[in-house]
Design brief:
The chain is an alpha/beta fold. It is built from 8 helices and 5 strands; from the N terminus they run E-H-E-H-E-H-H-E-E-H-H-H-H. The protein has a 5-stranded mixed sheet, with helices on both faces. Helix 7 packs across helix 8.
């Protein structure tokens, strides 16, 4: 079975959603899941489509950016589809042939996309590390300031007056786990940050 997934980022993009749906139906999709939600939000219809597809089905999208937030997200989706023995087809690949992970060429294209994405990520992290090292040498970078541990004395004071960790967390507007971490550090003899 051919299953389509269409998504636009906002409610104002009705024409774009309808165009995607037309392309998917023209490609032979018998069922189309559609939603208007940002890619960073929870995508209920994508989850429903991934749950719906069965062995030997194909999930079809018009473009990769309609499906995945990033290369990592794409690879996770493809890995899930592979466990279900479902292929992915992308109708438009920026001037190249459509991608179909059900073919050897499609799997190769996906591997190249994944490798390029991984290389870009590693290059970005390397540049970030170099920038931090340079800033540290120049005395301009001190790292992220600890957040909850700065409130250690306040946490200990509230504990000493008899408040429970849950009450302390609520009163200070911090997570209960953070309170427990500060209390454990104090029990281990670590100094409480001022």
């Amino acid at each position: 079975m051919l299953v389509g997934y269409a998504r636009t980022s906002s409610l104002g993009q009705v024409a774009g959603l309808e165009a995607q749906e037309r392309e998917l139906l023209a490609a032979g999709c018998q069922k189309v899941f559609r939603e208007q939600v940002s890619s960073v939000a929870k995508r209920d219809q994508l989850e429903a489509a991934l749950d719906y597809v069965r062995e030997s089905d194909s999930l079809i999208v018009t473009k990769l950016d309609r499906l995945a937030r990033s290369v990592g997200d794409l690879l996770n989706i493809v890995a899930l589809l592979e466990t279900k023995k479902v292929s992915l087809r992308v109708l438009s690949m920026s001037g190249s042939q459509p991608l179909d992970t059900g073919t050897a060429t499609g799997r190769l294209m996906l591997a190249v996309i994944g490798a390029v994405g991984q290389a870009e990520r590693e290059t970005m992290l390397e540049r970030q590390r170099e920038g931090i090292a340079k800033a540290q040498r120049e005395g301009k970078y001190k790292g992220r300031a600890p957040t909850v541990r700065r409130r250690g004395e306040e946490i200990m004071r509230l504990k000493d007056v008899g408040l429970t960790p849950t009450e302390i967390a609520t009163r200070l507007g911090i997570g209960r786990a953070s309170v427990y971490r500060v209390l454990a550090d104090q029990a281990d003899g670590e100094p409480v940050a001022a």
